[in-house]
Amino acid sequence: MDLNPKILLVDDNPINIRVAAKILRSHNYNISFAQSGAAAIEKALVVDFDLILLDIMMPEMDGYEVCAKLKANPATQKVPVIFLTAKTDSDDVVKAFELGGADYVTKPFNGRELLSRVETHIKLKRSLEALETTNLKLQEANDTKDKMFSIISHDLLGPFGSIRESLEIIANEEVVMDDENLHSFFKAMWNSISSAYSLLENLLYWARNQQGRMVYQPKILSLNSIIHDTYNLLGGVAKNKSITLKTNLIEQFDIFADKNALKTILRNLVSNAIKFTASGGVIVIKAKRYENDFVMVSVKDSGIGMDENTRENLFSAAKNGPRWGTKGEKGVGLGLVITKEFIEKHGGKLWVESEVGKGSVFNFTLPQNDK
User: What is the spatial distance between Cα 80 and Cα 121, in angstroms, rounded to a whole number?
Assistant: First the structure.
């Protein structure tokens, strides 16, 4: 059992409180007190208790009413309640259980019985919490798996199928093109291949990371140099949309990171910014020293921005649906999921600031050294 579970002891009789507290403290329980129903509810809303010991016979608001209010509130309904009572009539016991009570202990207290029931229900609560967490993770894993299959079947097979059909037409000389049309054709095909390749690379990175097979080899890297390489890589895509890529990097920034992961982080964020920025827009990467020997990097665009619902689901593989860029580019959101996982793997964090029509700023932190 975890050390010092938190218990709220509710009884209007101070003698009962002292007796129960002495028994429980001798076994390292952390005890809080309330001598009225109203005070008990107030404390339960502030502190995350592991269990509540609740007297039935109290003035103004009895234990039954207190329990009913606790179980009606989502913030407190999962905290087990053990009634403390001198009443052992079957009707009273049944009423306690009907109102959501987990158990009851009769007064005067038997120390061994009190400890046994308290320990049992705290263990049960922890077990149920662990089970809920496991179920949520399983559900998320299933949702993510479904999304991955959807990406493979639609977002990868679609572009490759289109490329194959286009090449087949050219190979069979079914269409004759002049140099200008042929150049446009190959440019469009190159864009499709680049997009599909980037998606496939992210998909493989994500799968390896989920399986714990991603190899990280962090070392001191020049952030300036990686940003420069990213701009060189994506400069052609930005130029096609007449988007200007800028930085404010006057001084040299070194960070402690895995080189491939850092390249993926910056490529995904800049690609995302280009996708959702209209022709003639501007993308700026800024960096500054951050707290606790970290560097904060910001990728700011003058794009279409996003609403609150989109921001909330942005980094969830299961909930992040497709979004369309300013020139019809389709985004499946996996790149941002990978980016967040890679940043957190380095001990950093990622967050976004955005408003519809006012662009977006993706901020992330990475350590300057190995500490």
Answer: 7
The two structure tokens encoding residue 9: 């002891």
**Between the CA of residue 101 and those of 54, 115, 130, 315, what are the distances in Å?**
9, 17, 21, 39
Please report the DSSP string for 196-259 in residue order.
HHHHHHHHHHHHHHHTT------EEEEHHHHHHHHHHHHHHHHHHTTPEEEE---S--EEEE-H
Measured distance CA(309)–CA(306) in Å, rounded: 8
* Contact indicator for 47, 6 with CB cutoff of 8 Å: yes
Range 229-259 burial, b when 16+ CB lie within 10 A, else e: ebbeebeebbeebebebeeeeeeebebbbbe
Phi-psi region of 343 (alpha: psi -120 to 50; beta: other; left: phi over 0): alpha
Tell me the residue type at 68: A
Q: Are 30 and 7 in contact (CB under 8 A)?
A: yes
Q: Where does residue 282 fall: left (phi above 0), alpha (psi -120 to 50 degrees), or beta otherwise?
A: beta
Q: Shortest CA distance to 11 belongs to which of 92, 117, 83?
A: 83
Pull the structure tokens for residue 6.
């938190």
Per-residue pLDDT of the chain (371 residues; tens, 9 = 90+): 456 899 999 999 889 889 999 999 988 899 999 999 999 999 999 999 999 999 988 888 999 999 999 999 999 999 999 998 876 677 778 888 899 999 988 888 888 999 999 999 999 999 998 898 888 877 766 766 666 665 565 556 666 776 777 777 777 777 777 777 777 777 777 766 766 776 677 677 666 666 666 677 889 999 999 999 889 888 888 888 899 999 988 889 999 998 888 988 998 899 889 988 999 999 999 999 998 899 999 999 999 998 888 888 787 755 555 565 565 555 546 678 888 888 998 999 999 999 898 999 999 999 998 76
DSSP state of 77: T
- Is pTM beyond 0.90? Reply is no
Q: How far apart are CA 287 and CA 363, in angstroms?
A: 9
